[in-house]
Amino acid sequence: YTRILMLVTGLQLVAAAVAAVFSIRAANAAKRSADVAARSLAITQRGHARFTPKRIAYFNPPDIGLVLEYSIDVSGDTGIRIVGGKIRVSCDDPPFDPQLRATKLVADIEPRRVTPSMDERKQVRFHVPLSESFISNWSSGSIVMFVTGEIEYRDAFDINPIHRKFFGYRWTGESQWHLNNVVRNDEEDVED
Fold this sequence. Notes:
This protein is of the alpha+beta class. Helices cover 30% and strands 39% of the residues. It contains three helices and ten strands. The strands form two sheets. Strands 3, 4, 5, 7, 8, 9 and 10 form a seven-stranded antiparallel beta sheet that branches. Strands 1-2-6 form a three-stranded antiparallel beta sheet, with no helix packed on it. The chain is rod-shaped, with a radius of gyration of 29 Å.
């Protein structure tokens, strides 16, 4: 009788071990499936940053300076959190005066949250004097201005890395902004 009990107990242990192995496999498969679903959601529903220049102007004293008005909005279903970035203003033909080029017309993009429904305009002011001839050429529309830079941001999903959006526009004096096809206008992920 004891041997039969030992045999039955041994069979129960084997059955329990087999059940445990299949349970672990099922749990791992469920976790992989959940990870794929989460990654799929993060890819299809995440927000994408978009930089849009609105206006560039020059103000004479006492508020001397070059002012760029822009917006950063979100395409996609979820918001983003900007963690940093840079905006650069340049002019190639004719170029800025040498002392002005030395000042490096670069401004930081401040960290903030942006949602798909926001329509928020920001301004950056460069306190720089422009020569009368430059202002005259600008007013006549014979100067092309460039705005380039990058935005670093996080989307709403923690599993995604920080994204870096590059942008580049040119202003041709027609009060219109055009994508500058010479610079990057794409996005990459930043390695942590």
